[in-house]
Design goal:
The structure is a single chain. The chain is mainly alpha-helical and 457 residues long. It is globular. The chain has a four-stranded mixed beta sheet, sandwiched between helices. The chain has a two-stranded antiparallel sheet with strand order 4-5. It has 19 helices and six strands. The termini are far apart. It is 56% helix and 6% strand. Mean pLDDT is 86; it is low at 1-11.
Length: 457
């Protein structure tokens, strides 16, 4: 009691001092962060000064244009026609990329081994992990070396009948649907078909996803794709704490759990099979293992295999990238065939001539359908499944016109704009498969057509 009486007059004073100190610490912290942001802004302005670009808002840059869903590529193409090699794209004053729209610049970037841009790709990492898509440096080389057998040319040959079987399941469903004379959303069914295909070919897994009309994994992929794009567009959601407390973050985590459960199920089933001696003997007799066999059996020169975390990342990456972008590409090809029936008829005649009395294409037939191949390439030119890729420079670069970018600069390589460049393509908006005939392809710039990007990455 005596000590309490003596200290009580000093208590309010100590609390006041603490509050004053806390306030000053907060002010200093804010000043520190603002100083860092100002320095970052000055560095960005200095780095991008040689590259003129479209006007942007003083606070949120060009972000306002990209809130108009579905118009992103239109704006990029318009700016690409104004700025020959590329232009800065600002999202707020503290994130900026140089958008490359010319093959000469693309060649310079793709000849290097810069890592993926962590500002854009980091939002997809919680979903697909750090697999080949986002890895860089020694770990990327290690994984790529371990997985090289999975990309062997001969591995693809036995997949052709499996792809045909999966396609026939989809076509049988379409025949029943069109009898009702209702519109059909092709992308959904094509996604199920490509997922079914990748599961059977790369993982030897019978998913039955095409007969399961309410597939949870496909729904989760749709939700995750939307949420990653939505988060990138909304600067406030770039903060992990804010995002994961938001309703959008809750939806992302829920869809992520479903996707990971699906992946874990596939891996677990194969591991159980590998415990069986007969299955091990069967796998050992294969001339070429499937992708999951390679993942589970891969070992480096030190006898070290992939960790469980790395294993799931590669499976998630291959499962998503192997079916989603393929489904997008196929859907756009079907769109072009429907929009241009004269080309569709030529493809049909060519394929009928190759097939004869058969109803399924074989490996040897794929080189005998040149006009169909040209139509596929023209569709990929107009509608590339991945319209752009991003890089972060790990060292400075000097382009062909003498302009330079410093280390740490962010790059977006716009495949969409390059494939539609008026400099390298006559009437680029016109669907013309003959662009890809042998005689018309001879003198074309090697990086003017980049449906799947290029280079080591």
């Amino acid at each position: 009691m005596a000590f309490s009486f003596l200290l009580s007059p000093l208590l309010p004073l100590s609390i006041t001092n603490v509050c004053h100190c806390a306030a000053w610490v907060f002010v200093l912290y804010v000043l520190y962060k603002l100083t860092k942001l100002y320095i970052r802004w000055r560095e960005l302005v200095s780095a991008l000064e040689p590259f003129p670009g479209p006007p942007c808002h003083w606070l949120y840059g060009n972000a306002g244009e990209f809130l108009k869903i579905g118009k992103d590529l239109d704006f990029a193409l318009h700016w690409a026609q104004t700025y020959k090699y590329g232009f800065p794209l600002w999202l707020s004053n503290f994130y900026a990329w140089l958008v490359i729209t010319h093959p000469d610049y693309a060649k310079a970037i793709l000849a290097r081994q810069d890592p993926k841009d962590d500002a854009a790709y980091r939002f997809i990492v919680p979903w697909i992990g750090e697999g080949l898509l986002v890895l860089s440096g020694p770990k990327w080389f290690q994984h790529r070396r371990l997985l090289t057998p999975g990309f062997h040319y001969d591995v693809l040959k036995p997949y052709v009948p499996l792809m045909g079987d999966c396609t026939n399941i989809m076509l049988d469903k379409w025949e029943k649907i069109v009898q009702d004379k209702k519109p059909v959303e092709l992308f959904h069914y094509v996604s199920l078909m490509t997922l079914d295909t990748i599961m059977k070919c790369a993982f030897s897994y019978q998913s039955n996803c095409q007969t399961d009309s309410d597939n949870d994994y496909i729904k989760a992929v749709y939700q995750l794709s939307f949420q990653v794009d939505h988060r990138f567009r909304n600067f406030i959601y770039h903060n992990d704490f804010i995002y994961y407390l938001s309703p959008q973050g809750f939806r992302f985590r829920k869809a992520q759990r479903i996707a990971h459960q699906h992946t874990d199920k596939v891996i677990k089933q194969r591991k159980e099979l590998l415990k069986c001696e007969k299955e091990l003997d069967k796998i050992s007799r294969k001339r070429h293992l499937d992708f999951l066999d390679i993942l589970l059996c891969a070992q480096d020169e030190n006898g070290q295999g992939l960790s469980d975390k790395d294993l799931r990342a590669e499976v998630d990456t291959f499962m998503f990238e192997g079916h989603d972008t393929t489904a997008s590409g196929i859907s756009w090809i079907l769109y072009c065939m429907a929009k241009y029936p004269e080309h569709q008829e030529k493809c049909r005649e060519e394929i009928r001539e190759v097939l004869g009395d058969r109803n399924t294409l074989e490996w040897e037939d794929l080189g005998k359908i040149p006009y169909t191949t040209m139509c596929i390439k023209e569709s990929l030119r107009l509608y590339p499944p991945v319209p752009g890729v991003a890089r972060k420079l790990n060292k400075p670069i000097t382009f062909c016109d003498g302009r330079t970018l410093p280390e740490g600069s962010l790059i977006i390589l716009s495949i969409y704009c390059i494939n539609r460049s008026t400099i390298f393509w006559k009437d680029p908006e016109v669907f013309d498969p003959l662009r890809f005939s042998a005689e018309n392809s001879v003198d074309r710039h090697h990086h003017a057509f980049l449906p799947f990007s290029a280079g080591a990455r």
